[in-house]
Design a protein that fits this description.
The protein has five helices and 14 strands. The protein is an alpha+beta fold and about 375 residues long. It folds into three domains: about 110 residues, Elongation Factor Tu (Ef-tu), domain 3; about 55 residues, OB fold (Dihydrolipoamide Acetyltransferase, E2P); about 120 residues.
Length: about 375
């Protein structure tokens, strides 16, 4: 039996297949439009290229001609004055900064007072005898002589009266003792006069001179410590970096770079050559440096020296794949950037060294 088509029949027979075909077409279009297309775009910056047919590539760092001199403090203290700024030219002896010196200044005043006392004592000993003391002792000697004369006469009278049985033996003994005392007093005063005229004892003067020398040494020690509080440049160059400010406390740990100095009239490049390429390196080989960020610039290098101690490589790029366990040979080249963009200390450069063909294994 035939029946009339309903709306459901139309939807089932025509609309659903049409929707299914539409979704299938959309899925195919979406998959096609979102597919991964392999691309090979050019790099934003062209990498550095070696100018030599066979070359040894190495990393280099620009440094001062005198190397980068990190100036520290031999003593700990608070910085009270900074004498230089970045870019200032310095010569040997130029003050860089000064530490607090109030306690040492007070100690120096005490030491100088002690030195003045020691010098005064030495001067007193060397100036003896004091001329005002001589008449006093001469008068005492004359008085002692008069006493001896008096006691001599008294003893003589006592002996005469004792012989006539007028005085007792005890009185005679007393006169003899008084005469002996007067004689001893005369000898003592004469000895004091001779000692005064002889001046100070030589060994006392030696002790006083030694005391003066010790006081002078103590003053010199404090002055040296005061001078050490003024940190000075030991080489001629330029201030490359200042890492200290007035009011900061600085200690004395080794390697603390408070101020970095260097002679940058002629720059050096420290090149790290991988230990696997050492056999291909020659001192007479041509070398060129390409700074990062200015790959179109090339700086010719001139060989200076080789540091023959092979050291562990320092990580400069921070790349996770970098081999930090590799050892490198450090070679120093000089670079003159005249007529080209300037190079700065600490700047990294790509270095290419002309080298012979690498040896083939088994040949």
């Amino acid at each position: 039996m035939k029946r009339r088509r309903t709306v459901g029949d139309v939807i089932t027979q025509f609309l659903l297949p049409l929707v299914a075909l539409s979704l299938l077409a959309f899925a195919g279009w979406y998959v096609w439009s979102t597919r991964r297309v392999p691309r090979n775009p050019p790099p934003p910056i062209q990498p550095a290229r070696s100018p030599f047919a066979d070359a040894v590539a190495a990393a280099g760092v620009v440094e001062a001609q005198t190397e980068n001199i990190a100036v520290g403090s031999a003593t700990a203290g608070v910085v009270v004055q900074l004498h230089v700024r970045v870019g200032d030219e310095v010569t040997p002896g130029t003050p860089l900064f000064r530490l607090d010196d109030r306690d040492l200044l007070a100690e120096l005043a005490v030491r100088r007072a002690a030195l003045a006392t020691a010098k005064s004592e030495l001067t007193r000993l060397e100036a003896e005898p004091r001329k005002e003391k001589v008449p006093v002792l001469v008068a005492q000697v004359n008085e002692a002589k008069a006493a001896v004369v008096r006691e001599t006469d008294a003893l003589k009278r006592a002996e005469e009266t004792f012989a006539r049985k007028v005085t007792t033996e005890q009185e005679l003994i007393a006169r003899r003792e008084a005469f002996a005392a007067a004689q001893a007093n005369l000898e003592r005063t004469e000895a004091d006069l001779n000692l005064l005229k002889a001046g100070s004892w030589e060994y006392d003067r030696d002790i006083a001179r030694a005391g003066v020398g010790r006081a002078e040494a103590e003053v010199a020690k404090i002055e040296i410590e005061l001078d050490r509080l003024i940190v000075r440049a030991l080489v001629a160059g330029q201030v490359l970096q200042v890492n200290v400010r007035p009011g900061e406390f600085v200690g004395a740990p080794p390697g603390q770079p408070l101020i970095v100095l260097g002679n940058i009239e002629k720059l050096h490049v420290r090149v790290d050559i991988d230990e696997f390429d050492i056999s291909r390196f020659t001192e007479t080989a041509k070398a060129t440096a390409v700074p990062r960020g200015s790959l179109q610039e090339r700086y010719p290098l001139e060989f200076v020296r080789v540091e023959p101690f092979v050291v562990p490589k320092k990580s400069l790029t921070g790349d996770n794949t970098e081999r930090v366990d590799t050892r490198v040979l450090q070679v120093i080249y000089s670079c003159d950037p005249a007529g080209r963009p300037p190079l700065f200390v600490g700047q990294q450069v790509e270095v290419y060294l002309e080298a012979a063909q690498a040896p083939v294994a088994g040949s």
